Amino acid sequence: MPESGRVPRIAITMGDPCGVGPEVVAAALSDPEVRRQCLPVVIGEPLAFRRACKVLGVEAEVREIRSPESVAESSIKEVPVYCPMRLEERDVEPGKPTNRTARATISYIETAVRMTMEGITDAVCTAPINKAVLASSGFPFPGHTEFLQYLTGSDKAVMMLVGPSLRVSLVTIHVPLREVCSLLSIEGITDTISITGKALWEFFGIESPRIAVCGVNPHAGEGGKFGREETEIIGRAVKRASDMLPFQISGPHPADTVFFHACRGAYDAVVAMYHDQGLLPIKLLHFHEAVNVTLGLPLIRTSVDHGTAYDIAGKGLAHPGSMKAAVSLAAKMVGQGRHRREAGRT
Hints:
There is one protein chain. The chain is α/β, with parallel strands linked by helices. Helices cover about 40% and strands about 15% of the residues. The chain folds into 2 domains: about 1-155 and about 295-345, Isopropylmalate Dehydrogenase (3-Layer(aba) Sandwich), CATH 3.40.718.10; about 155-290, Isopropylmalate Dehydrogenase (3-Layer(aba) Sandwich). The chain has helices at about 20-30, 30-35, 45-55, 100-115, 130-135, 145-150, 180-185, 185-205, 230-245, 255-260, 275-285, 320-345; strands at about 10-15, 40-45, 60-65, 80, 125, 160, 165-170, 210-215, 250-255, 270, 290-295, 300-305. Strands 3-4-2-1-5-12-11-6-7-10-8-9 form a 12-stranded mixed beta sheet, with helices on both faces. Helix 1 crosses helix 12 (about 320-345). The protein starts with 8 loop residues before the first strand and ends with a helix.
């Protein structure tokens, strides 16, 4: 069967089995529209997944598979679950993570990446992890994005948040606010613009991406009155990117106005300088629909845009909107990527 005719296979990690991950995955995969778009394989603990299905009243045909390769044998009605590290019932008590569940969570991510790199699956979609819990078990990475960059040997990974009316990429990610300005560089901003633009073309079907670049200071520095980063770093990066890339790039723009225009269609994406500058508008507009996408990797990865929510885990209260959107977007990105590759061969 030609690549374009095959339904995308998505490796969906359960995230922390003690959080809401199992529930949002179970809820998402009970949606007929989500199932129509992909063939999923859940990477995680079957005990936690079955419990989530029971809490939600979801009737799922769960099939435990012994090897990642067995996903190809699954029918469209089944939910194959592959578990690289088995846990016991006491290990997956909702809201009570341990070092053992942390290690299992890490193994889910590693397995999903390996399956996708080997071509068993077409994309990775991740449920939430808890950074503090993982750190307490010796996990050396700030979050998913940095770990995926390491696992794939990528030079740079870019976090993009995608909502129905807004896309935002970040230059810096999980760093203290006081360190942001010292981490800004012409090269780093240029690379973020480049990776963002290429992804918009390859995976979102945008022929000539329009990218707005934020300043970091109030009013984008007001000509140097409120800071020199815009004139000495960000503006130069915009000029360099405009000279070398076939995209429509503008900025630096004041962050307090650029998102207003972006969500009304003036731009295809905004490049923000730091975490909360970019996440605040996307979560304000699309709290239950936003998707975290990692750009710059040799694979497609989407994720929910929320945390483990231990306080409501196991209660059937978690909203599955972001997970549904993440699975759906992963499938669409696979399809668009195939289209670009096949068009390039003709």
